[in-house]
């Protein structure tokens, strides 16, 4: 019953805000003037933040989660951030929005193109100009290298729009949700993580590196196991531990040519792998530790 109540509240919150969002997005589409964009974009972001505030409301009504959180007190909603996080569940997105909205600019995700067709939310993501990417396997890219260039160009265009007003660009470096089966298939050297992919973060830094105030390295741990979306709605996320660490932007890498310079590519991958080794050790410690209840 609790899951149905939470689902109903989520649906009502979404159906209230999305039509308003779409109406303003259509105005921006029909009248594509830079001056209008600069006025409408902040309004669209405020609407998205109001939707997230509504989600916070029904989460407080239906959840008894212990929030053990550190590292979010000195953030600036007026600056640009690149947010990098491990990925275990769709619930990660609700956790990130719950904790970071209002502290930094609205999180913008790179989404699989298939998600454009998700009822209601696909239109909302389109209205907010979340970039939709065509994800291709390495085998497909090896056979058709021109496809790699298309995704790079789509990323570049999205980042150019993000540079107009303060934005938080969200990146899940693993590229997919963690499962033991994927970990084994990848032969991942990490206990709790999949192998990170450096291409997306490298291109984002190359286009927007001079804008970012910092890289926010976020680690999410569910001590009782990562909940499914339905388990989350049913109030079974008893505890979540989150650590946020600000990292300096590696300017020497951001200005390099990741796509064409093997030395830059190797250095970028080493930099990200070091972050991942530290994150893996941090997850070990968080699974073993106590809580710092922030609710």
Folded structure, characterized:
Keywords: Acyltransferase, Transferase. It comes from Candidatus Accumulibacter appositus. Residues 81-223 form the Phospholipid/glycerol acyltransferase domain. Its EC number is 2.3.-.-. With 295 residues, this protein is α/β, with parallel strands linked by helices. It has one domain (64-288): Glycerol-3-phosphate (1)-acyltransferase (3-Layer(aba) Sandwich). Helix content is 51%, strand content 14%. The chain has helices at residues 2-30, 34-62, 91-100, 121-127, 138-143, 146-162, 180-186, 199-208, 229-233, 251-254, 262-288, and strands spanning 66-70, 80-85, 107-109, 111-112, 132-133, 168-172, 212-221, 239-247. The strands form two sheets. The protein has a six-stranded mixed sheet, with helices on both faces. It has a two-stranded parallel sheet with strand order 4-5. α4 links the parallel β4 (111-112) and β5. The longest helix has 29 residues, at 2-30. The radius of gyration is 19 Å and the shape is globular. The two termini are 23 Å apart.
Highlighted features:
295 residues; alpha/beta; Glycerol-3-phosphate (1)-acyltransferase; six-stranded mixed β-sheet; two-stranded parallel ribbon
Instruction: Record the strand order, biggest sheet.
Output: 1-8-7-2-6-3
Work out the radius of gyration.
19 Å
Shape: globular
Query: Based on the structure given, which CATH architecture is correct?
Result: 3-Layer(aba) Sandwich
Secondary-structure content class: alpha/beta
Please report the distance between the alpha carbons of the first and last residues.
Answer: 23 Å
Instruction: Please describe the biggest sheet, giving its number of strands, its sense, and whether it closes into a barrel.
Output: 6 strands, mixed
Mean pLDDT: 86
The fold-level CATH name is Glycerol-3-phosphate (1)-acyltransferase
Identify the CATH class.
Alpha Beta
Using DSSP, what is the number of strands? 8
- The low-confidence parts are 291-295
Beta-strand fraction estimate? 5-15%
| Residues in helices, as a percent range | 40-55%
Q: Write down the secondary-structure element order.
A: HHEEHEEHEHHEHHEHEHH
């Amino acid at each position: 019953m609790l899951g149905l109540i939470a689902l109903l509240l989520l649906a009502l919150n979404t159906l209230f805000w999305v039509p308003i969002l779409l109406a303003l997005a259509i105005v921006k589409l029909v009248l594509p003037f830079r001056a209008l964009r600069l006025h409408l974009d902040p309004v669209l972001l405020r609407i998205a933040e109001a939707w997230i505030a509504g989600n916070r409301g029904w989460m407080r009504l239906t959840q008894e989660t212990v929030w053990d959180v550190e590292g979010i007190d000195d953030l600036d909603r007026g600056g640009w951030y690149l947010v990098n996080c491990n990925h275990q569940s769709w619930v990660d997105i609700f956790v990130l929005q719950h904790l970071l909205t209002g502290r930094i600019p609205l999180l913008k995700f790179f989404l699989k193109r298939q998600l454009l067709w998700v009822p209601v939310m696909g239109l909302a993501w389109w209205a907010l100009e979340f970039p939709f990417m065509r994800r291709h396997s390495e085998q497909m890219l090896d056979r058709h290298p021109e496809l790699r260039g298309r995704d790079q160009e789509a990323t570049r265009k999205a980042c150019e729009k993000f540079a107009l007003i303060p934005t938080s660009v969200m990146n899940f470096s693993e590229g997919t949700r963690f499962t033991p089966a994927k970990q084994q298939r990848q032969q991942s050297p990490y206990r709790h993580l999949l192998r990170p992919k450096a291409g997306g973060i490298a291109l984002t830094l190359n286009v927007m590196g001079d804008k970012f105030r910092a890289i926010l390295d976020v680690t999410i741990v569910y001590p009782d196991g990562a909940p499914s979306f339905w388990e989350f709605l049913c109030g079974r996320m008893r505890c979540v531990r989150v650590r946020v660490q600000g990292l300096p932007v590696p300017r020497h890498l951001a200005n390099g040519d990741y796509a064409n310079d093997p030395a830059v590519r190797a250095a970028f991958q080493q930099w990200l792998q070091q972050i991942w080794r530290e994150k893996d050790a941090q997850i070990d410690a968080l699974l073993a530790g106590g809580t710092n209840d922030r609710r």
